[in-house]
Amino acid sequence: MDNFVNFLNAKILPVANKIGTQRHMMAIRKGVISTLPLTIVGSFFTLINNPPIQSWANAMAPYKEILDIPFRYTVGILALYATFGIASALADSYKLDKLTNGILAVLAFLVSTAAPIHITEDVKGVISAGRYIDISNLSASSLFASIVTGLLSVEIYRFFKEKNITIKMPQGVPPEVSNSFVALIPAAFILIFFWFIRYILNFNISSFLSMILMPLKGVLVGNSLFGGLLTILLITGFWTLGIHGAAIMAPITRPFWEMSIAQNMGEFASGTSANHLSTIFTEQFLQWFLWIGGAGGTLALVVLFMFSKSAYLKDLGKLALLPGLFNINEPVIFGAPIVMNPILGIPFIVAPLVTGTLSYFMTIWGVVPMMMARLPFTVPSPLGAFSSTNWSIPAMILVFVNFLIDLAIYYPFFKIFEKQQLEKE
């Protein structure tokens, strides 16, 4: 075991840490996560617009179209916001002007992704002649295009600045004015570059990336049990090595997660039943059904610690209970620890695989609906599952069933670990 741990420390951890702290990976993660408040707010309006009580639903019916607008301008154009966030984060890492680079990235994204639609004649009572942008092109389905345009536009700006291919203003000019003139030549190049690709070469970056990467989405984030379990295994496996599993996986899974929950929310808002949405293995599926108390379903372990004969484990359980109820489990992961601890690391990995399998079959059998809303991860799991599945009581019950399964899986390993602690004490 010592040799295996030494191998992980020497070979695996440096690579994983290097990937997790790579400049562009961090920019993607920060930029996409920056849209979190918008998707959460949009989810609340989706929930308000689809209440579980029929009398409430009837009362809200006349306002359904109006209440749908906040969703369309949050989740509905998610990729537009993500583009600005990704570019700003990358620019900040280079010590470049964040505002300028964010704006230029949005320009690149719109030019390359949102081709204007030209309506030549009025359609009476429907639409007037003019040019329009289809906001569906700005949704999470274009998230990979937002990543590419966001990163590439910053690199173009940086190249021009490092090569001094800019317009320099005299000293004494306010920084905001100076930065604007510095951006003139890069802005012109970015505009022409992405315009040429989209309209002269007729190459759609978003469509191309979707064609290339969608098969990967089907593996890691979709309706494949194998893919879902693989994602769970990777996240929990990294955690046992002392690395934030979700953070390491974020550059790969985060765009797919955002696209999947946005698609589910959009379908539900358009009238599709929550039992017939597109994606099962969304981030919210993991969050509410599997990560009860945090990654690895550690709330069960915290409860076992609270009744331990070991003074240390009992105190740790009491300390970790309140954070655990709100799905924060760093106290138990690093306090027990679970990191580099095979005794607790095994159930930490196995328990979510078992509850994930059960939850998957409960979903495909129609017992519980799919996820159609996004709530903060600190919402207690039963309430999160209840709200995110269109007020499904079976979904809430499934959380408690999974918690009991977690207890059963953790228990024998807990007893072994407790015995070791008692011997030390």
From TrEMBL:
Keywords: Cell membrane, Membrane, Sugar transport, Transmembrane, Transmembrane helix, Transport
Residue stretches in coiled coil: none
Domain PTS EIIC type-3 span(s) in chain numbering: 8-413
PROSITE patterns attached to this UniProt entry: PTS_EIIC_TYPE_3
Compartments in which it is found: Cell membrane
Chief localization: membrane
InterPro entries: PTS_EIIC, PTS_EIIC_3, PTS_IIC_cello, PTS_Sugar-EIIC/EIIB
Membrane topology category: Multi-pass membrane protein
Superkingdom to which the source organism belongs: Bacteria
Family annotation (Pfam families): PTS_EIIC (PF02378)
Membrane-crossing segments per the record: 31-49, 69-90, 102-119, 139-160, 181-201, 221-250, 288-312, 332-351, 358-379, 391-414
Entry function: The phosphoenolpyruvate-dependent sugar phosphotransferase system (PTS), a major carbohydrate active -transport system, catalyzes the phosphorylation of incoming sugar substrates concomitant with their translocation across the cell membrane.
Protein known as: Permease IIC component
